[in-house]
């Protein structure tokens, strides 16, 4: 047998080879297979588009074009099950104002608070029924008006809610407007995770010690709200409060809150300081790399929460 020898393989063997390649090859190499044949395209599209992470303006605009049918060869929307929108360019993310409607099989959706991918003119009835897991990366940036208008997220279908980097003591968006307003609609909620971590650089915070203590103190004040949620939401079986912060004063308040809620078996506390904490402290506030560093931090948090949900 030489290099000119050709032979036909059974279809299932060809499919296995191609699917194995899609797992091991670089993404750009896999994308080239889309034009080989319709069968190959049908095999690999679900692999390519099942998980989408958007970090840059270029990625957002390209994905938006695919969602709106501008690429005849691409049918990404129906394959997307996990979408993490971590781009902080508002002018770009405005092109993604109808994701829950256009991605009918979307299960886990993560987005930065200010970059909410829907407008207040959209109504709840058009949302994806499959969307059961929601991660909000900077609730301190949430537009309260959007949530009063009931965006196309069907809250009654949510089983997992993950909130990262809540706002400081002067910000009531998270507890008073998000959780309280949607309280009676979270009937399917099983898992709530409130993660005190570094917020988006867009918040322009420079004193993380003050931010962390204020965020934890405000959570301390809303302890009764968490108790009420556990009483009124029968499916809510786990509330996780976790953090990357470990400042001395923060630890004192953290321990006090743990003691206050130790009578609630559904509530657990997790403190996991980052191994390179000093790097984040110096880079996130005012570095040209702050956006990329924050996106990496968020992606790691999302991967960790996904593992805990499986």
Structure description:
With 310 residues, the protein is α/β, with parallel strands linked by helices. It has helices at 11-24, 27-31, 38-49, 57-67, 90-93, 99-102, 144-148, 173-179, 208-221, 223-232, 248-260, 277-283, 290-309; strands at 51-54, 82-85, 108-111, 133-136, 160-164, 191-196, 238-243, 267-271. The radius of gyration is 22 Å and the shape is globular. The chain starts with 10 loop residues before the first helix and ends with a helix. The model is unreliable at 120-125 (pLDDT under 50).
Strand residues, percent: 5-15%
Shape: globular
Give a quick account of the main beta sheet: strands, pairing sense, barrel closure: 8 strands, parallel
Number of strands: 8
Helix content: 40-55%
Oligomer: single chain
Give the N-terminus to C-terminus distance in angstroms. 48 Å
Which residue ranges are poorly predicted, with pLDDT under 50 across at least 5 consecutive positions? 120-125
**How many DSSP helices?**
13
Rg calc: 22 Å
The helix/strand series, from N terminus to C terminus, equals HHHEHEHHEEHEHEHHEHEHH
Overall mean pLDDT stands at 78
Global structural class: alpha/beta
List the domain count as a whole number.
2
Identify the strand order in the major beta sheet: 1-2-3-4-5-6-7-8
